Amino acid sequence: MAEATSQQQQQLTSLLLHDFETHTSDCLWELNEKGVLQNPSAKLATLFGLDINQIHSTSFLNLFSHLPDEQHLESTLAIEALKEHFQQQKAFRHLSVPLMINNNLHWWQLTAKPLMDTQGNLLGWRGVGSDITREREANQEMNRLANIDSLTGLANRHQFKTRLSLLEDSTHPNDSAYALLLLDLDNFKMLNDGMGHAFGDKVLQTVANRLKQQIRQNDLLARLGGDEFALISTGEEAILRADVIAQRLLDCFAHSFDVDSISLQISCSIGIAVSPIHCDTSDTLLKHADMALYAAKSAGRNTFRFYESGMAAAAQKRMSLLNDIRQLLEQNPDTKALLNKVDNNFHWSPDLQLQQFEIYLQPQIHLQTKQIIGFEALMRWQHPEKGMIPPLEFIPLAEESNMIVPLGAWMLIESCKLAAQWPESWRIAVNVSATQFSHGSLISIVKRALEISGITPNRLELEITESLLIQDKNTAKTILQELRNLGVRIALDDFGTGYSSLAYLRNFPLNQLKIDRSFVSAILNEKGSLAIVNTIIQLADALSLETIAEGIESAKEVHLLIACGCEDGQGFHFAKPMPAHKLPEFIAQYPYH
Question: In the CATH scheme, what is the code of domain 15-138?
Answer without folding.
Answer: 3.30.450.20
